[in-house]
Amino acid sequence: MKLEAVRGVLFAAVCVVAGGCSGNSSSEPCIEHNASAADAQVPSADAAPSTCPQDGIRGSGQHRLFTQGTGGTSDSRGVWPLLHEWHEDGGDAELCDEKIFTSDANCDGVWQPEETPLKKGPDALEHGEHFLVGAGAYVEFGAILCEDITGDVTFYIPNYDEEGSRALHQLFVVHDGEEFLIAEVTDEEAGQSGYNPFVRIVAGNDPVAVMGDELRLRSTNLNGVAFSVMVWQPPSEYESWVSVTVP
Amino acid sequence: MMRTIAAALLGLALAATACGDATNTSADAAIIYDADPFAPDAEQLSCAQATLEIGRCQLAGEGGPCTGSLEEAEFVAVEPEGGRIGVIVGPQGADMMVLSLRTSGIDPGDLDNPASTDRPDVSVQLYRNEEETMAHYVGRPSFLGEAQSQEALGIYLVIERAVRSGDVFRVVAEVEDQDGEYRCGSLRFIAE
Q1: Which residues of B touch A194 (CB under 8 A)?
Q2: Where are chain B's structural domains?
Q3: Which chain B residues are within 8 Å of A136, Cβ to Cβ?
Q4: pLDDT tens, residue by residue, B55-65
Q5: Under an 8 A CB cutoff, do A136 and B114 touch?
Q6: Span A166-216, pLDDT tens digits
Q7: CB B19 within 8 A of CB B137
Q8: How sure is the predictor about A128, in pLDDT bands with cuts at 50, 70 and 90?
Q9: Contact at CB, A140 and B138, closer than 8 angstroms
């Protein structure tokens, strides 16, 4: 990832200076206005509180959080990490920056469903999809929040599912054990064995989150038909993630 | 919230198959991924009585393991310490075991909504040879039936590693409803 970090910095620098986006499938350069707007989406290390854990969510802008696979480790509650990678200098440009992480075809710095992830992921990512079979079975992923977030959420959940499956994806802020629902979306899309990404960009409920609260993603099988939250290592478009925004 | 005793049971009390109340909860603790997530807690090991029965899930009339619709499934008791549970092929070819749970006196919560947090929290851990974690189910299945006999049918344990016929497994299950009623059980069995 160190090499990737260098690439990311270089790509971002090139994009700002030259007005072009790295990884852009289009040969058209980004216009200056959009490139600047995109840069503003990248989290700032300056805002990081001293007590915020390394993988905590902090700094104004968009944060992309990756689901850990079954090859990794869950905590004692069975909650898997939502991986949020920062570098030693506090920066995490390439995984949160659309110009780096995706094709960002329209160069607006805001990911759109038709824009393809460019096979990048956090170092700690381990392979292994989470199978949910039987109604009520669920899997949870969590990360520590160090700052308040808005209700703007993107769900990108590629999945293996058998025909007829229904799955509910919910994103919460957990404060003192109480869950506050930010957003929920239901995947009823057909996609048998397709690993098709289920994508929703949602303006959900704006929570009041404080340092130490937990951001928790829960995916639940609603009707019993087999479903999985896809996790793929090496990183690919089959890796699930959500994004949230610190105002 | 759910009290996780499964790993502690396996690590320090494998001989004990009965479980009782426990008082510690980690649900509200901050996430600390670097720490040993399964460090045993003395209070969590204080199992006194079995309150949750673990069995197979079987299709009524047909006798095969549960797959697909559970409308005609039934709980089938497994002989303690050496009974057999079959392996079926799960999603994408993974091995899978289908269990059922039976208890009493818990609040089943909202039976119409599988995502409702009013339902009892269920955690089921599967170990091979008493130490190798093979599967972990978490969910809020439907507990159906009268208060004196409530059954959750179709607890699917998806196993990512190959299972050999004759492998010895232990499964540890915990249930806690939203009123704090807690049940747990353990079963040692042979895969077939």
Answers
A1: none
A2: 51-191
A3: 114-115, 119, 122, 139-142
A4: 999 988 878 88
A5: yes
A6: 999 999 999 999 999 999 999 988 765 556 788 899 999 999 999 999 999
A7: no
A8: very high
A9: yes
Helix axes A2-18, A32-39, angle to 10 degrees: 140
With an 8 Å Cβ cutoff, is A238 touching chain B?
no
Whether the CB of A128 is below 8 Å from some CB of chain B: the reply is: yes
Helix (H, G, I), strand (E, B) or coil at A47: helix
pLDDT confidence of residue A144: 94
In the predicted model, is pLDDT for residue A88 greater than 90? no
Any idea which residue has 């959080």 for tokens?
A65
Q: Which top CATH class is A63-85+121-247?
A: mainly beta
Q: Do A137 and B139 touch (CB under 8 A)?
A: yes
Q: Give domain B51-191's CATH number out of 2.60.40.2550, 3.40.50.2000, 3.40.50.10490, 3.40.1180.10.
A: 2.60.40.2550
Per-residue pLDDT reduced to its tens digit, B149-175: 999 999 999 998 888 888 999 999 999
Residues of A with Cβ-Cβ distance to B71 under 8 angstroms: none
What is the pTM for the complete model shown?
0.79
Is the separation of the CB atoms in A59 and A219 below 8 Å?
Answer: no
